[in-house]
Design a protein that fits this description.
The complex is a heterotrimer. By secondary structure, chain A is of the alpha/beta class. Chain A has two domains: 173 residues, P-loop containing nucleotide triphosphate hydrolases (Rossmann fold); 72 residues, no CATH class. Helix content of chain A is 34%, strand content 26%. In chain A, strands 6-9-10-3-11-12 form a six-stranded mixed beta sheet, sandwiched between helices. Chain C folds into two domains: 165 residues, Response regulator (Rossmann fold, 3-Layer(aba) Sandwich); 133 residues, Response regulator (Rossmann fold). In chain C, α5 runs parallel beside α6 and α10 packs across α11. The longest helix of chain C is centred in the first third of the chain and has 32 residues. The chains are: A alpha/beta, B mainly alpha, C alpha/beta.
Chain lengths: 257, 324, 359
């Protein structure tokens, strides 16, 4: 399968983000396709998080355009991003610990009767269904999130992203701070999502995980997109080469300004 | 199923515990004084608790968001003065009441706007608006109470509806509405989420600022409603009315199991706490205990109840984490 | 483990409540059973006896005493020394007259809501009469109506309840006892006028908070006396809000504007003491008469040292006793005067020796 087989769901064009004199992102162009896992790798400070924040609507780019399903935006906010079908599983998971599982799954998308009365029963049922479909092992959606394990909490964050009804799900460092078993579960979940047709973007430090689950790999370095590779046709050493880089004196100088 | 029942009980443990303390206090007081458990006295306690319940409901919402509103006492005074001034300048009772309620609501909304627009600590913001509101109240009256209203107005404070009175009905209505809003509407859900994790709510695409403004507006509204009751009851609007009410309201809300750190809260807890405070104040007076001891006893009871609630919550967490 | 922790806390709570309860009742029984100390039944000095005689004359015929009636008393707050003194005076009067008194109060001077709640709770008890001193004219009105409805007599001591508001709410006050503020001002002014002698001179008044009852009453009384005296010119009436520092500045300004000022009447002792200090500091104390009201301890000292010329006093002991007698009269459905005034004493640096042991 090649890129030209179908149109991208999201196109980033010439995205630049400046924080004062610091260029966190420089002229990034990126296309995102359905049914694919796109991995974004790079060192700390390479611009991965900034790129994710642009997509999830946490920040607006200083320059450039975001085209989603044919419509062009100069920037998103969280509500807009979600309504355009872009959901994010944050590294800190962004769960409300003091509320129960169902309330978190439907946070911001509560189901109501008569236009205002929260339909708790329906949300509970749908929560169970949702968790079952995603193989998240939580018996009771009425439990408080603070009472759950790390893996279960991540399961909720993923389920919520799915429940937001979008087509694009962004994972920010999904396996950081996870045990071996829990990492395995989340990687399987990511692969499943792509097979079900979602466009999945994964930001990760872990090259092994990335190579295992992704179809394409983007390497970021010092705010630039330095490589956009097909996973099947690249090797760990090649990716590592792009990440650490050799001939990047020019970029270094630019950052220093 | 049993497990689920257990967790449900856990959810309401604060209220159950508080309810038990209330019942124990009532039993104890009715044993030591024959004057305590009379309908006359019960009616007193209910009547006196109404103000605290009405303000407590609004304050519960604010504290659920991990916020605080110190301006409610001053809003009580200002809204009463708005109603009084309006009536004395010829406005009918109904519109005058609405005007007063509007004034209080506006102060509340303003609190919310300043807090969310500039992202300033609610304590500081409402400390400021408290002083501003009290100042406006003093300026509007020149420091002199306004008194003498029609019975159509005083009915709201001292009228009769069978064995009960309008403030009790208002308090009941506000408490029920508050419980429904907190537990069964998006707004209530967002109030709790704002306190639990505001950033998470924002990232879920919810207009957090708008919801915060509305919640502070609700608190201003309930304070204004308390202003109606107190003004009508005393047939006087005075600029120093509601002095220190904010502290009573905060104490009742926290005693009721709402977490100052936000995210957890209950209207029923607040209502029980208001009744408990009412019963204690009344009971200690009936027992002729000097005011020094009353202050001490009520203060200690608040402290102990809050400590119990905190311990209970932490223990639950620890046990569940061990279980995982 | 958890249950035990919670359990022990609940126990502490229960203990606390009962402890406070016991503390309260022990105190009550102390009050009721302790043998009366001999000197309490006698006036502490001749001046107090004089006051008492004047007051008793207003209450003729005296009601039957030693009835054991329960009388509830609600003062403003026990964080103010004046009301603490009144509480003691009430309790002494209760013992002397053979009635049971219980004194309650609002937690603080401004807590008008709690004061009302306390009154309402008191109306649920079996008192025959209540003696109340409201924080402000309106806050106790609903409680008064409740007491009326329960057939409890209500006597108002000191700060006035707004009688129109009570009548409006369908209630009434059965008896009223207070200090005549105008009389206080008048007595003080008369002393100043007398001291200045026939040549007269310029005088000034330093008020409390404008609009406050005591302040206005005392000012009016003094003003009338000054204006009706020949050769006396009232040059200024300035408010100093009962505040020591404000009064100091006000007095300094007054003496600056009118160096030939001969007398200053201050609406309370605290302000009078400040005025004396200010004049002293300006080197102008000599030949000027400064008079206050209240006869506080510090004022007594100042009169002995000659710093203050005098003050207007009334006896808390006599005041409280009269209030209890008035309450007994209302209980016994006797005719009562519309308002009973506490007699006043003009204490000056000349007669201060006679006021040893005054309270």
């Amino acid at each position: 399968m090649t890129d030209s087989d179908h149109k991208p769901i999201i196109r980033l064009r010439n995205i630049t983000k400046n924080y004062g004199n610091i260029r966190a992102l420089q002229n990034v162009d990126l296309d995102i396709y359905m049914s694919q896992v796109l991995a974004v790798v790079g060192d700390n400070g390479a611009g991965k998080s900034t790129l994710i924040k642009v997509l999830s609507g946490a920040i607006k780019p200083s320059q450039g355009e975001i085209e989603v399903a044919g419509k062009v935006y100069t920037g998103l906010n969280p509500a807009l991003a979600i309504s355009l079908g872009i959901s994010t599983v944050y590294q800190d998971l962004a769960l409300v610990d003091t509320r129960d599982v169902a309330a978190n799954l439907f946070l911001g998308r509560e189901l109501v009767k008569f236009g205002w009365w929260l339909d708790k029963k329906l949300m509970l049922e749908k929560s169970k269904q949702l968790l079952r479909n995603l193989n998240v092992n939580i018996v009771d959606p009425q439990r408080m999130v603070s009472q759950l394990s790390g893996g279960q909490r991540q399961g909720i964050a993923v389920a919520r992203a799915v429940n937001q009804g979008g087509k694009v799900i962004i994972f920010d460092e999904p396996t950081a701070a996870m045990g071996v078993n829990e990492s395995r579960q989340i990687l399987n979940l990511i692969k499943d999502l792509a097979e079900q047709g979602y466009a999945v973007i994964v930001v990760s430090h872990n090259l092994h995980h990335v190579l295992e689950i992704s179809q394409r790999i983007c390497v970021m370095k010092q705010g630039r997109l330095v490589a956009n590779l097909e996973t099947a046709q690249s090797s760990p050493s090649e990716i590592a080469h792009y990440i650490t880089g050799v001939n990047n004196l020019e970029d270094d100088q630019e950052i220093a300004q | 199923m049993i497990h689920r029942l257990w967790t449900k009980t856990q959810d309401y443990a604060s209220q159950v515990l508080l309810g038990l303390i209330l019942v124990a206090a009532i039993i104890y007081l009715s044993m030591v004084s024959e004057h305590f458990l009379t309908w006359f006295n019960i009616r007193n306690i209910l009547d006196q608790s109404t103000l605290l319940v009405i303000m407590g409901v609004g304050m519960t919402f604010v504290i659920c968001t991990a916020g605080i509103d110190l301006s409610v006492g001053a809003v009580v005074a200002l809204s009463g003065i708005c109603m009084a001034t309006a009536m004395h300048s010829g406005l009918a009772v109904g519109p005058a009441i609405l005007l007063g309620l509007l004034a209080g609501t506006i102060i509340g909304l303003l609190n919310g706007l300043i807090i969310s627009a500039f992202n300033i600590n609610p304590f500081i913001v409402t400390l400021g608006t408290m002083s501003v509101t009290r100042g406006i109240a003093l300026i509007m009256t020149g420091g002199i109470p306004i008194y003498g209203f029609s019975t159509a107005f005083t009915w709201w404070g001292s009228g009769h509806i069978g064995p009960i009175n309008p403030p009790m009905l208002l308090a009941l209505g506000i408490a029920l509405a508050g419980a429904v809003v907190l537990n069964y509407t998006k707004l209530g859900s967002y109030a709790l989420a704002l306190g639990g994790n505001e950033e998470a709510l924002h990232r879920s695409g919810v207009a957090t600022k708008k919801n915060k403004v509305i919640i502070y507006g609700i608190c201003g509204f309930t304070a204004a409603l308390a202003g109606l009751v107190v003004t009508a009851r005393l047939n006087t609007a005075e600029p120093l009315a509601g002095y220190m009410f904010e502290l009573d309201a905060i104490a009742a809300v926290v005693l009721g199991g709402t977490d100052m750190k936000g995210g957890r809260g209950s209207i029923s807890g607040t209502v029980i706490a208001c009744l408990l405070l009412g019963v204690l104040r009344n009971g200690l007076t009936i027992m002729s205990i000097p005011s020094y001891y009353q202050q001490l006893a009520i203060g200690l009871i608040i402290l102990i109840a809050v400590i119990i609630s905190e311990l209970r919550f932490r223990n639950t967490l620890n046990r569940l984490q061990e279980a995982n | 483990m958890k249950m035990r922790k919670v359990g022990s806390l609940v126990l502490i709570l229960a203990l606390l409540v009962s402890l406070v309860g016991c503390g309260g009742s022990t105190q009550n029984s102390d009050n009721n059973q302790a043998a009366p100390t001999p000197q309490q039944s006698e006036a502490a000095n001749a001046k107090m006896q004089e006051m008492e005689d004047i007051l008793m004359a207003q209450l003729q015929p005296l009601p039957e005493t030693n009835t054991g009636d329960k009388i509830g008393i609600l003062v403003i707050t026990l964080t103010n020394p004046f009301w603490v003194g009144m509480k003691e005076a009430y309790e002494a009067a209760g013992q002397e007259l053979g009635v049971e008194v219980e004194v309650m109060a609002a937690p603080t001077e401004n807590d008008s809501k709690s004061q009302l709640e306390t009154l309402q709770a008191m109306t649920a008890k079996d008192y025959k009469a209540l003696i109340i001193s409201p924080i402000e004219p309106f806050n106790l009105v609903p409680g008064i109506v409740q007491a009326n409805n329960k057939g409890i007599k209500v006597v108002n001591l000191g700060p006035g309840v707004d009688t129109a508001a009570v009548a409006n709410a369908g209630g009434k006050i059965d008896g009223r006892i207070c200090v005549d503020f105008e009389e206080q001002g008048k007595l003080a002014a008369e002393y100043i006028i007398e001291k200045m002698g026939s040549e007269g001179g310029k005088v000034a008044i330093i008020q409390g908070i404008p609009g406050a009852g005591q302040s206005e009453g005392r000012t009016q009384g003094a003003k009338k006396a000054f204006e009706s005296a020949p050769n006396v010119e009232l040059v200024s009436i300035q408010p100093a809000n009962w505040d020591r520092n404000t009064a100091y500045n006000t007095a300094t300004n007054l003496i600056q504007a009118h160096p030939d000022l001969k007398g200053i009447f201050c609406c309370n002792d605290v302000m009078a003491l400040a005025a004396a200090d200010a004049l002293e500091a300006a080197g102008q104390r000599e030949g000027k008469i400064i008079f206050g009201v209240d006869f506080i301890g510090e004022a007594a000292e100042a009169m002995k040292s000659g710093k203050l010329d005098g003050s207007i006093a009334y006896s808390s002991t006599v005041y409280a006793k009269a209030a209890v007698l008035l309450a007994l009269k209302t209980i016994q459905e006797q005719e009562v005067p519309e308002t009973v005034f506490s007699p006043l004493a003009v204490v000056t640096k000349e007669n201060i020796d006679q006021y040893e042991g005054w309270k």
